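fyi for ur records
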Amino acid sequence: MHALEVKNLTKHFNTVRAVDKASFEVPEGSIFGLIGRNGAGKTTTIRMMMGIYLPDEGEVNLRGVKVGQEFKNKVGYLPEERGLYKKMKVLETLLYFAEIKGKNGRDVHKKAEEYLKRFELYDRRLSKVEDLSKGNQQKLQFITTVLHDPEFVILDEPFSGLDPLNTNLLKDIILEMKERGKVIIFSTHLMDFAEKLCDHLAMIDHGKIILKGSLKEIKAKYAQKNVSLTYDGDISFLKGHPIVEKIENFGNTTGVRLKESNQTQQLLKLLVDRNVTVKKFDANDISLQEIFIELAGTDGVNTEVHHA
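which gave:
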């Protein structure tokens, strides 16, 4: 059985259909990514899952039963619009939010201090929230999300505004939570984060789910006849070449789609013969970014390279 099932969720705002019959399943003990460009319907979908918005149609089931208050009690939720009490002190904020979720006492106090040390915020524990930088407020908000040890963790664009070190730390903690059997759902428009973290995903575009399933199966399906290439030199001769269907440049890597899957060796020979220095040549490999562009087009897609 799946941990969560989203069935035909639909939401209108006036005449705009923000989410259109979205359906997907979140397996137990998995990291699930809801991915798509900004404005695709990710946050609206998450708010319906959390009961913040009531759907016009559809439902969300928790282990086969329609979600209610019980689900909210089991969830740690990091909203896209962060909200902390600016005048409260850092440690006080953590203990306050844990108490709302029914956790208090020495253990939670100790755990709060451990998290603060891990995120290098311990020396700011008596500072007011408003005196923290934006990045530090983001870290504090993340700790409030997970401090009460929820079964489900739902993170809406968790990496926005974090530097690479803290992004890495967040990634480590997400993977630790997965190891402890938690279900983690996060939304992002950054495809490379999703690719490095997710076991399963649903891709949303203009409110519709355009792709869903396990990352492994999705990549296997779309990777046929595809080569992921890193090189030095000039490969312009490949454009219009009889064996090449198309070429996509992604900055650090280039995706080459061949007309037939048995032409990979031929492509490698062409590159070597033209004195192109091949640094990486992955046959039958494709990035999530390439799959997204193939399905949804490049309009508004984040093609920055982030090192997650």
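The first helix runs from residue 42 to 49. thats all i got for now
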